[in-house]
Automatic annotation (TrEMBL):
GO molecular function: exonuclease activity; metal ion binding; RNA binding
Species this protein is from: Congregibacter litoralis KT71
Keywords assigned by UniProt, alphabetized: Exonuclease, Hydrolase, Metal-binding, Nuclease, RNA-binding, Zinc
Basic and acidic residues composition-biased segments: 439-448
SUPFAM superfamilies linked to this entry: Metallo-hydrolase/oxidoreductase
Occurrences of domain Metallo-beta-lactamase (ranges): 21-206
InterPro entries from the UniProt entry: Metallo-B-lactamas, RibonucZ/Hydroxyglut_hydro, RMMBL, RNase_J_2, RNase_J_b_CASP
Protein name listed in UniProt: Putative hydrolase of the metallo-beta-lactamase superfamily
UniProt-listed Gene3D superfamilies: Metallo-hydrolase/oxidoreductase, Ribonuclease Z/Hydroxyacylglutathione hydrolase-like
The keyword Nuclease belongs to this UniProt entry's keyword annotation: yes
Disordered: annotated segments: 438-460
């Protein structure tokens, strides 16, 4: 057994370090562990129509479950909460998260036949909670889904900041704008470490505000004559809010196509992040409205099989058939690995005379990343002033770029590793390679999870 002592503060990632997605992080102190996030990833297989759902292999913490004090979920994205309904019974401890994430988790569990964690304890941004030997403070931070929080974690051995996914956005449309004073205050506590998102570390400059996207979508939709379909990630509640505003200003009615969009929208209404709009109509009304009066938000921006956008491209959607002169706007980025299905989707639309505007080719800004670019990372390290930076949530090139930025902006040391490595955060920084068994579990058609063979081991 690997057990942290009373003077130790450890970090052990089981997923999301050296890769983007499937996050599962452990912090250790005085014989106890705190889990932060428990997500999934989707792996495409040329022999299967639908992508496969995979989770981190949690065997290490299953073996240490008697020492697990609790689980904290930072936000509602699948790569941070998607595995929770599938894995929670293996380590049944209290789960803490913000209201929107809790509501999404309940709905995801019900839809997939998984388990809703119990107790599921809701914590408001700005609150603190004692979880075993850890004091956890929820610091509101801007991202592409609301109620995202960084975590200021303190124990007798030291202090750290876990950023979760984030960006600096002063006008995110839903929720409060980024407040750098929160992170400067955390830095003033003399942080031993910052564990930080690396997704856009290789991208220079600053990410775009959601308010700029709102304005860009407004100008783009105003210039379209027929029906307009905007494809975006279902969890981007701010994008839905922006499109409700665009519908109002352009005199169009808005419809949500796709179960996940409707689930997220309903969750946001339930917790008060959105108000019900008179511009929002049911899909059944689309058939008798003039084409120029219709604005649609659809799932399927990654070319997913069976999603609303693919059914529109194939002419198989039960409520709507697009025609030449209609426009599809891809208000998203292509996730690496999805290039082929997205290209096929675009070709199907264009072959039918339907205009496609993607985020790279658009005249106006129609999408913004939810992750910090290089200048934002530099600012965070200047505010937080950690002794040690540990980049996560990225491939090796992203994490190395993040580490370089950290060292140039106040961090005395930066360590990069991968899943299964043990990072010593206090009393002295250090790294021990391959301490914990890591891997992936895959969900089959019956909902069962089984280990995924390593790449060099053929499947049975």
């Amino acid at each position: 057994m690997i057990t942290p002592g009373p003077k130790d503060l450890w970090f052990l990632p089981l997923g999301g370090c050296g890769e983007i997605g499937m996050n599962l992080n452990l912090y250790g102190h005085n014989g106890a562990w705190l889990m932060v996030d428990c997500g999934i990833t989707f792996e495409r297989d040329s022999h299967r129509v639908r992508p496969r759902v995979q989770t981190p292999d949690p065997q290490f913490i299953v073996e240490h479950r008697d020492a697990l004090a609790g689980i904290v979920l930072t936000h509602a994205h699948e790569d941070h909460i998607g595995a929770m309904p599938l894995l929670w019974e293996r380590f049944p401890v209290p789960v803490y998260t913000t209201p929107f994430t809790a509501e999404v988790l309940r709905r995801k569990a019900a839809g997939r036949g998984g388990k809703v964690p119990s107790p599921l304890i809701e914590c408001l941004p700005g609150e603190s909670q004692r979880i075993g030997p850890f004091d956890v403070e929820w610091l509101p931070i801007t991202h592409s889904t609301p109620d995202t929080c960084a975590l200021h974690i303190r124990c007798d051995a030291g202090k750290l900041l876990h950023t979760a996914d984030w960006k600096i956005d002063k006008a995110p449309q839903v929720g409060p704008g980024f407040d750098h004073a929160l992170f400067a205050a955390a830095g003033a506590s003399q942080l031993d470490a910052v564990i930080c998102d690396s997704t856009n570390a290789v991208v220079p400059g600053h990410s775009v505000s959601e308010s700029v996207v709102r304005d860009g979508l407004g100008k783009t939709v105003a210039g379209c004559e027929g029906r307009v379909v905007v494809a975006c990630f279902a969890s981007n509640i701010a994008r839905i809010h922006s499109l409700i505003d665009v519908a109002d200003k352009t005199g169009r009615y808005l419809t949500l196509l796709g179960r996940s969009l409707q689930t997220m929208h309903s969750a946001a209404l339930t917790v008060g992040l959105l108000e019900r709009s008179p511009r929002l109509i049911e899909a059944g009304h689309l058939g008798y409205l003039p084409r120029e009066d219709i604005l649609i938000v659809a799932t399927g921006s990654q070319g997913e099989h069976g999603a609303a956008l693919q059914r529109l491209a194939n002419g198989s959607h039960p409520q709507l058939e697009l025609e030449p002169g209609d426009t599809v706007i891809l208000s998203s980025r292509i996730i690496p690995g999805n290039e082929e299905p997205v290209e096929r989707l675009i070709k199907r639309f264009r072959d039918q005379g339907i205009t496609v505007i993607d985020s790279d080719g658009a005249v106006e800004t129609v999408h913004a990343s939810g992750h910090p670019c290089a200048d934002e990372l530099a600012s965070m390290y200047q505010w937080a002033r950690p002794r040690l930076a540990v980049p996560v949530h990225g491939e090796q090139r992203h994490m190395k770029a993040n580490a370089k930025i950290a060292r140039g902006n106040g961090a005395k040391m930066a360590l990069t590793g991968e899943n299964g490595d043990l990072f010593y955060l206090a009393p002295e920084p250090g790294l021990r390679r391959k301490v914990a068994r890591v891997g992936r579990l895959e969900q089959d058609e019956e909902g069962r999870l089984s280990p995924v063979a390593p790449p060099d081991v053929p499947r049975a």
